[in-house]
Amino acid sequence: MNDKQSLKVKSKIWIELNNEVIFGLGRIRLFREIERTGSMSQAAALLGMSYRAAWGKVTATEERLAMQLVERQQGNRKKGTTLTPAGKELLLQYEIFQKKAQEAVDNLFEDHLGGLLNHLKQHTNTEKKM
């Protein structure tokens, strides 16, 4: 193990209602791309998913939360698809939550397993001496 390597903890968090996904990293990516491109089809293509799958995720989230998150401008290619104010707020708040959750996980990892990296470095140095 060289000095440039580091241990990192990874976690995935998503929100469920009655064992059905409401929001998580996949939907964050989808909502970000909808917001950025103004198009459901472009967002889906950029994420490597079908248009139908993308709409399915958005519709499922809207139904589970009982709120409209995406504004559909049917027949208007210039306006396309945009996030509603509720959709923008959900995206913003989930991104803040995700960042704070990752920081908390990083801190917990350091508090409880931070010495593991030093152990690995010492173990590697011992092996090199042999």
Strand arrangement in the largest pleated sheet: 1-2
- Portion in helices: 55-70%
Extract low-pLDDT stretches: none
Radius of gyration: 21 Å
Q: Give the percentage of residues in beta strands.
A: 5-15%
Number of H- or I-type helical stretches: 5
Taking the alpha carbons of the first and last residues, their distance comes to 15 Å
Calculate the mean pLDDT score and round it.
Answer: 87
Which structural class is indicated by helix and strand composition?
A: mainly alpha
Order of helices and strands: EEHHHEEHH
How many beta-strand elements? 4
Multimerization status: single chain
Looking at the structure, what is the overall shape? Answer: elongated
The major beta sheet can be summarized as: 2 strands, antiparallel
What does this molecule look like?
- The structure is a single chain.
- The strands form two sheets. The protein has a two-stranded antiparallel sheet. A two-stranded antiparallel sheet has the order 3-4.
- The chain starts with 14 loop residues before the first strand and ends with a helix.
- Strand 1 (15-17) and strand 2 (20-23) form a beta hairpin.
- Helix 1 (25-37) packs across helix 2, helix 1 (25-37) packs across helix 4 and helix 2 (40-46) packs across helix 3.
- The chain is mainly α and 130 residues long.
- Helices cover 61% and strands 10% of the residues.
